[in-house]
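Checked the freezer inventory, then went back to the computational side. Two predictions to log before the end of the day. The first one is the construct we discussed on Monday; recording sequence and tokens without edits.
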Amino acid sequence: MMNNKGQIKIQEMAFVLMAIFVFFALVGLMFISYRVSNLREGSEVIKEDATKELLKNIANTPELSWAGCSNCIDLDKAVVLNGNGSSEEQYAGLFGLNYMKIERIYPKREDGECILGAYPRCSELTLVDTKEVKGTSSSAFVALCKWDGELNTEVCELGRVIASGSGLNEN
């Protein structure tokens, strides 16, 4: 009889230890899953920031940059580059983009593609469109500057660069 009572206490202790072990294992699993989800969110934020930086760097390329202004696109240069037809292949290869468009946001302009004949009465300029699957596009706000011959001064507007492609997804 004494032996039975001791065995029962040992079994009780074993069950309590197992319950404590299972409890801490579940708490540990919940903590790890919480940390992994935060890590994923942080990773997405870093990718998004890197993508926006790449888009801003596009504005600083010599072919598009406005002299004396950081993150400003020379709209006159962009229209001329788009007009000679060579920019699509150049930018698709240079940045790994399938799609890149510059959109004029403010002041609001007439809808339409910016080509040499319609410029400056237009609202968007598509520099790269390879007609491939574009994936998720990203955008960044930039200043769009041009020379106004009538006012004999530079004029800057609010614009947005929209792009998608493998160059953005690698970041």
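The second is the one RB wanted added to the comparison set:
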Amino acid sequence: MKNDDGLTLIEALLALSILTLAIAFAMPNGIALFARERAIADANLLHSALQRTRFYAITTGIPTSIQAIDNNWSNGWRIFTDSDLSPESPKQLIAQQSLLGSQIESTQTLRDKVHFLPNGQAILPSGGFQAGTFSVCEKGFKRSHNLIINRVGRVRRVTMAQNPKCSIKAS
């Protein structure tokens, strides 16, 4: 009578090689999935921060701004009261947020700050209306999740499969 209580070396090596092949095929999809989920999470954070800033200005009647940390939206942002757009005026910090690591590009008008008036409108320091697009890019891919601010300050979201603003260098 033969006793089959374990695996032979050849069976173990065969199982290991099949497992290695399965991981090799799944790895690129996993990396893409993590990049996409990170970008979606960061786009959600920025979207809610923009809405929160606008809502704060409307409900309190105090002009409020959201500003990129170190003039780079990829580093995160600060939300604060900003009654006269002057760098010298006192400001009350409302919130601060760091990101998960997505690359964020913006149009020139949104380069470092978005300022909301109590009526909900976004304005430039010069007094003109402020509108533009934030592109939250998936690292290593050209896909982006765009947040578009219209002339009355409302934010909407659009996903682009190919955004020229997004670089393809892998992280």
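For RB: The mean pLDDT is 85. Residues 9-60 form the longest helix (52 residues). Let me know if you want it refolded.
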